[in-house]
Amino acid sequence: MKQERFDYRMGLLASPLEVDAAEWNGLLALQPQPTPFLRHEFLSALTTTQCASEHAGWAPRFVTLTDTRTGRLAAASPLYLKSHSYGEYVFDWAWADAYQRNGLAYYPKLVCAVPFTPVQGSRMLAADATAQRQLAATLVALAKQMDVSSLHVLFPTETETRALTDLGMMQREGIQFHWLNDGYRDFDDFLSTLEQKKRKNIRAERRKVREAGITFRRVRGEDATDADWRFFSKCYRQTYREHYSSPYLNLDFFRRIGETMPENLLLVIAEFEGKPIASSLVVYERNDATGGTLYGRYWGALEHVPCLHFETAYYQPLEFCIEEKLDRFEGGAQGEHKMARGFLPTITRSAHWLAHPAFEDAVGRFLANEANLIHAHIDELREHNPFKT
C-alpha cells in the first residue's frame, strides 16, 4: 500500500492499548454517531478481560492512520481477525457453510465491528472526509493482501457504508426496532399516543409486576457497588444458561467498564422483599444537539415473575429516557415484539467483501433479493404501527 502519498502512515495494532486513548476518543468525538461502544475504554476492556482476544477468536488488528505532518492520529478502526462468526449479529453462517461444502476455508476473516454489540454507529473514526476515504481504502486493501476469505464492516453509518460500497463492497441491510421520544412529559403521556389495545396491554403487564410485590432500583454507574456488578453478572450468565449457551462477557469486563465509563451506564435491579431477583444493564450517551440515546444491552433473572422481563428491560429504561430527555432508545437486535411497546422498525447496514469471485457474485445476488424482502417486510410492519393513526 502507498499511504505515504496521502501523507498517512498506517499502523496495524495487536491491541487497542497500543493507541493513545485521548487521541482515539478525540476522533470519536468528531463523528456524527459517536456511540459509547467505540470509546477506547470499552474496546480496551473487551481486550484486557480476554472477552475479545485471540484466545476467544477475536484477534485485534486495529488499523490506524497517522498524519505524517503532525504525528497525530487521523483515522482508526476496530478490526479483528475472526476464527468464527459468533457475537456479530449479522449472520453469515450460511456463507461459511457454502464455503465448507465446496472445500474452501471461510475462516479466518476480517471483521470491523464492536464485538457482541449490534449498535449502528461510526466504525471508521476519521478527522475529516479525506482521512475517512483513505481509511476505507486501507481496510479493503488490507483484506486483499492478507490470507483471509472476506472483510465485513458491521453496523457502520450510512455515510461510511457509501464510502465502502464505492470501493466495491456489498451492502447488506437488516432490521432493528427503535423507540423515539416525542417530547413525552412522562410514561403515561407516551402511553396516551398508543392504540387503546396496546396501551391496555402495557398497563396490565406493569400491574402484574407491581402486584407480585416487585420493586426497582435504578443505579447509575457512578453509584454501582461491586455487589451490584456481581449480581448483574450472575443474572447475565443465567440468561445464557437458559439458552444452553456460553456468555461472551465476564465479571471482570463489567467491573472494568463500571470503573472507566460509569457515566454511560445504568443498572435496573428488580427486588422482592428486599432481595434482588433480576437486573438489566443499559448504556446511554448524551448529545447536545439531539438529547442522546439509550441502548438496551443485557438482562437476566434468577426467579420467574410474569412480565418481569418487559418491566426490567423496557419499561423502566423507557421511563429513564423520558425523565432524562434522551431522544432515542435502541432496543438491540431483532424482536418484533418490541413494536407492541412503541418501538418502530429501522434499517441497519453492513458492508461485505469476499475474495472468491464466484462466491462474491452469488452473495451479491442473494443480498439484492434479501434487501427486497426486508423492504417488503418493513412496509408490512409499518401497517401495524402501534400508535394512534
UniProtKB/TrEMBL annotation:
Keyword Transmembrane in record: no
InterPro entries attached to this UniProt entry: Acyl_CoA_acyltransferase, FemAB-like
GO function term, MF aspect, one: transferase activity
Annotated keywords: Transferase
Superkingdom as given in the UniProt entry: Bacteria
Protein name (database record): N-acetyltransferase
Organism: Trinickia violacea
